[in-house]
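User: Predict the structure for this protein chain, please.
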Amino acid sequence: MDILMLFLYMVPLSYLLFRLVKIVERRRHQCCYILDFECYKPGDDRKLSTDFCGEVMKRTKNLGLDEFKFLLKAVVGAGLGEETYAPRMVFEGRESCPTFDDGITEMDEFFHDNIQKLLERSGVSPSQIDVLVVNISMLTSAPSVAARIINHYKMRPDVKVYNLTGMGCSASLISINIVQNIFKNHKNLYALVVTSECLSPNWYTGNNRSMILANSLFRTGGCTILLTNKVALRGKAMLKLKCLVRTHHGGRDESYGCCIQMEDEHGRPGFHLGKNLPMAATRAFVDNLKQISPKILPVRELLRFSLASFLRRMRQSSSKGSPGGRPVINFKTGVDHFCLHTGGKAVIDGIGQSLNLSKYDLEPARMTLHRFGNTSASSLWYVLAYMEAKKRLKKGDKVFMISFGAGFKCNSCLWEVVRDLEGRNVWEHCIEGYPVETLTNPFMDKYGWINNEDPTTFKIPE
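Assistant: Here is the predicted structure, written as structure tokens:
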């Protein structure tokens, strides 16, 4: 009888242990690791120097004195240096009449260079790729750009393909989220994420101020990321995904229309950046932080912030004195490095102020904006590469990524550094010269005279 009772007790216990082992094993295979990533560096013949930018401005015949002054102010205040890159057709003087082939050529140059370098360095062949996610917001083709990659690299017929368009500057984290969800249901996969933006069809040549801004911010770039959930490769991984949160305010008309691809009143295509963009970004940013903060911050910091907020509300409802300053949550209690979207100098400064970040924290984003400009969805990875090149990323560090995009969207995630990162990347040719002072700008020295011109006599310089 005792043996029987012992057996009856042991059966459910062994079953529970079996289920626990299965759960642990499944979670081990659901992890999302970055094995390697490669940022794109176009040739030096595509750098936008001050002199060349001036030539592009001069041949844009739709600009008057007011537009010249506005564009000069935008360029000077954007935080970009003289080594950012533009599409090839701009250097050929065809930005006012781009063709469909210009967009395809721009993307092919990126695909053929960037993907090849990443796969060769990692030792993974195209036939080993199980999942391919491509995000190019402002170029659609049939077959898709993802199909062009499959055709060029002769990938397997059963590769799982996702081709994203219209996702804007926050698209790379959407791509990562797709891979993350696939990894939860399938073991031992390789995934390739390809993120870039096609500027050729959308280089604006009109005089609408809300659309001129895009030319002073967006630049050519791209990144390819190799991910896996193979447990055997975790020791070779660079980063491990801890959590990812996506916020979408497309249901609000003012958020939906603040950042949109469109044509101006004369039918010239471009990208409209509305005056209500900062407000839309702030709302999405706050909502996103509300969701991700409990996932990445220690309990003690959440309790401290909750208590400080409660006491402030109590003082505010009381007639005694002022409620004091608004409490600020300290993200540095759970985050070591901040990988911010390079949407512009004002965007970086605004996030820094909201999160109470130091000059050191903002340096990677500011320097990336200066060297490469806003490369849309790939900009986060240039910022990450800067941190790696500066040997900041040590084993166990937490890296917080946050990006904004048309829609309006705010997406964020937290990575854990798996091993010390000191690899060579897109910054290796110039990292010794950074950080640099970005307060002075050569555009003002060369073209500041425009501000003193008489509107009645002004003519575009030859």
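The chain has one domain: 30-313+325-447.
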